[in-house]
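Researcher: I'm preparing a figure for a lab meeting and need a structural model of a single chain. I don't have an experimental structure, so a prediction will have to do for now. The sequence is pasted below. Please return the structure as tokens so I can convert it later.
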Amino acid sequence: MIALATWNKLVKEWESKVGPAYQIPRRSKDRLVHFCKHCIPHLKDKAVVEIGANAGIFGYEIAKVAKRYIGVEPANKVREAKKEKPRTDYFKQAQITLEQIKEFNPNAVFLHDTIPEFCKREFTGNAFVACFALYHFLNHEIDLLKEHVWPRCDVVIIQNRVQDRPKKHNKYKFYKTKNVVKFFQQLGFGVNVVSAMSEDKRQKYDEVICHRLKHE
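Model: Understood. Here is the structure written out token by token.
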């Protein structure tokens, strides 16, 4: 996993050049360790897209094993469309992370696309990742992914926050892991769930690991 010294150096650069960082070790280390242990092996030699890439720390790990990596970070575009004041531009932070990633994987890129913009591109990948993001997607965005992205995937990995109160961005109630499992089973995936608790016991989350079922 990324050395803490390297990660902290990135945080300083993100914050000095862009603004406050979300993917700091205190907030994300437990999740990243768990993701590396249980999810990264399933992405080896895959062409991976990660939607909701933030500053790119999970992408940093994915790109170590992936054949190709695309990180999509639409947050500020979404907020601007809603006429909300943008927070830190995580896409700009991801561009700083990319300088490090390019040292070991030249086939990596970050895109400042919304989901509709990304789905207009020709998708040639075979793996999809979303960490603490799926429950934020809107109904029409999920429909686009169902049509253009997930049918082409052999592997889908969702890191899902277990929440006491619902996120009502879509009709699927993805804040409950059982609903994520049911959704991807209906899309033709076999699903395994690995649960974890943060070190401070304040946050529970699940890795939902989906593999395309092959019919005889």
